[in-house]
Amino acid sequence: FALNISNEKYYLSYTRGKEWEGPYQFPDFKLGNLTSRTDVLVNGKNDAFLFLSAKDTKVKSTLQDRAFCVRTTDGGKTYKFISWMADIDTIRSVMPATVRMSEKHLITAMRRRYDPPLDQKKMLPKNYISVHESLDNGRSWQFKSIVAETDRGIRNGNPPSMVKLDDGRIVVMYGYRNRPYSIRARISSDYGNTWSK
Fold first, then answer.
1. How far apart are alpha carbons 175 and 181 in whole angstroms?
2. Quick one: which of 11, 30, 99, 128 has the fewest CB in 10 Å?
3. How far apart are CA 174 and CA 37, in angstroms?
């Protein structure tokens, strides 16, 4: 099984991506334009969390994406909004990558962008990846740490990819979009509190 999410639509494959069904349309969750990418945790045969994003005018930023969590318990026939994954602030949150650490413990890495206030136009935006966690199976989220900057403010950053290793450590990979251009990885041995070089 494979799932591909793009904005308000998604595609399904039961042949390891050789053939695809769709597109199917998400509900708008009464949030407006969805800006989602693929991030899903399958909980069971008909049960899954999907981590999406939408434009939210309450985010005081040039790019107003805000990440949120939904759940399906009927194999994708219906979806229920569970929670916002980041507070309303001046910082964009989009393109999460989420892993399950235990029955109720989830960790997500998100693409972030801070735009300076209008009276400080000479400042460049700050693009980085932050990590947040939920200790109640997605109902609420708390900030944990910043993994890394993703550029020096002129290329809009880069989304993370995160995996949990067999020994419980988590790895975040991302593109760094300034010289030296690179694909980088950092490892955490303490649930995302601190990160390796």
1. 8
2. 30
3. 15
**Separation of alpha carbons 9 and 38, rounded Å:** 10
Extract the runs of DSSP E, i.e. beta strands, from 43-196. 48-55, 65-72, 80-84, 91-100, 106-114, 126-134, 142-149, 161-164, 170-176, 182-188
Contact 52/70 with Cβ under 8 angstroms? yes
The token pair at 15 is 């042949």
pLDDT at 63: 87
User: In degrees to the nearest 10, what's the CA dihedral of 184, 189, 192, 193?
Assistant: -120
Tokens 């109720």: give the residue: 104
Residues in the chain: 197
pTM above 0.85, yes or no: yes
The pLDDT score that the predictor gives to residue 119 is 62
